[in-house]
Amino acid sequence: MTNKLRYTVPGMSESDAERVVELLQGRLDATNDLHLTLKHIHWNVVGPHFIAVHEMLDPQVDAVRGFADELAERIATLGGSPCGTPGRLVEHRHWEEYSIGRATTQEHLGALDLVYAGVIEDYRKGIEELGELDPITEDMFIAQTNQIELFHWFVRAHLEDKSGNLSTAGATSETEAASAAG
């Protein structure tokens, strides 16, 4: 993938468009990773709440796949070339590979709590920067963050007690969160 834009949208400087494309590509990498992780969890959950979690994840997978498509199309709209290859994803991600295999629903949801938290934090950083660069892409990031935060709440509802305390509170790795939730 070349970072050189052939053109961009009217009213946006090339340098601003290049930075927006960079932010979009980062979210494209994250959403490609996230939808694959969600599907991995979908296939590997076990236990008494299997069907509830298994079925809860499919709409999340579909939505996140749609986000990836929107991000890639925005990159192309700005004159960039979106890259969705596995090699690109592995080479450029700044997070660890999801490491939980066959495990209980609670263990997977504990790990997913941390995954979603990281994705949301990165989206919010992008939103802060996009306010100055491109309100169109900022709106896209806001809408996607809204949906991901909702999915995060669905996950966290399984992890909290009646007082609202999360079983994963203080966990710093997905294996630690999985253990705490299990």
From TrEMBL:
CDD domains: DPS. Residues 22-161 form the Ferritin/DPS domain. InterPro entries: DPS_DNA-bd, DPS_DNA-bd_CS, Ferritin-like, Ferritin-like_SF, Ferritin_DPS_dom. SUPFAM superfamilies: Ferritin-like. Belongs to the Dps family. PANTHER family: DNA PROTECTION DURING STARVATION PROTEIN (PTHR42932:SF3), GENERAL STRESS PROTEIN 20U (PTHR42932). This is DNA starvation/stationary phase protection protein Dps. It comes from Nocardioides abyssi. The gene is dps.
